[in-house]
Amino acid sequence: MAETLIHPVILSGGVGSRLWPLSRSLYPKQLLALAGERTMIQETAARVSGARFAKPVIVCNQEHRFLIAEQMREAGIEAGAIVLEPVGRNTAPAAAVAALILAEQDPNALMMLLPADHVVRDGAAFDVAAATAAEAAREGAFVLFGIAPRTVETGFGYIARGEALKAPQNCFRVAEFIEKPNQAAAEGYVASGCHYWNSGMFLFCASTYLEELERLEPDMLSACRAAVASGRRDLDFFRLDEASFARSRSRSIDYAVMEHTAHAAVVPVDLGWSDVGSWLSLWEISDKDAHGNVVRGDVIAHATRNSYLRSEGPLIAAVGLDDVAVVATVDALLVTTRSASQDVKHIVEELQRRGRELHLSHRRVYRPWGSYDSIDSGPGFQVKRIIVNPGAKLSLQKHARRAEHWIVVSGVANVTRDEEVFALNANQSTFIPLGAKHRLENPGTEPLHLIEVQSGSYLGEDDIVRFEDSYGR
After folding, report:
1. Of 287, 273, 284, 281, whose CA–CA distance to 120 is shortest?
2. N or C: which end of the chain has fewer CB within 10 A?
3. Strand 324-328 to 438-441 pairing
4. What is the CATH number of domain 6-274?
């Protein structure tokens, strides 16, 4: 008899505010290559791409859909579905819509819930834990992956281990869920040997989860059922019905189900796991030089120790520093002690309060056709560097309050301007008058690079009327 496949459900809804300025709302940490060559969501999907696993279901913020689809394509991973959340409602509703979709194919489908932004260093140990958890889940258990604590941590929830299940081995009933403890309590939990960090990774049967949700959160399940039933296909995505999904209350799977079910179990694991929740935790899991420094990008360090130094833009010159994190992008610079790096979220909150946009996006903004970088601006003008991917094209559009001048730097551009259609090569340019219907397309096999100079009374991204769009916007 063939082994039952495990259906990975990758949850990609967080914004990672503690990893600002790299992580931002429109380009959060799971879409960044923070701990390796691949992005965190690519690493998560690759971890569950073996013969034991079905194609992953990804539940994500609708604003990230094209970025996630492109990253899966780059990684050579085919998603079983990419489900778009119109509003954030935490992990319990996200798991519910995934369970409803999987249960339509197989009510007994085993689903593994995985955050998109965690690091797992030991893939072999992960596979062993998945096999153990699957065996327990087939018997009706809700299985948590409990991380053997390496240090005394007050920032994690803990799970107390109860009696062992008859089968499989190394699987135990959960005796207690414990909120983030104080220092003394955390020290006792670590010393006990029978308490584990709550990893946020779960494995259970789709139908069993839906049954418990019906008992514990019937209104939430009803809203999720309606959101799936009234959802619609949109290109390669499944878009949940916004009005229905918004009716669900926002709750984590821990609060909604795990702390109330009689079937919670834990598999203790040592996976080389990290939730990468701060610059300190990223420093802890990264390779270091002889002085204990993690150095990424254009950095010169002198007499500096035990620090995280990363530049995505200007040179960082660090002299005589110890125990700090310095992170530079082209539009922001963070300087903090490593121990205070959890508090970076307060900077993000202050940016929001002041109406700044630095918490939302980077200067380089990604679109389904490529990207643009706003390199200069002033009263009545804005200059952008635009990159159009091979074979991609922008929407057929017009602007009511701005004109544009395009200069091709490299590649070939096909330009539509009202009734004209013509090609532009490197060092050639054209003018798009205010109100002209226009489109830009890259017919080549290499990226198209051009400079766009906008001029007019209003230069916001919402001054656009689309007549035709390949991406359904």
Report:
1. 273
2. N
3. unpaired
4. 3.90.550.10
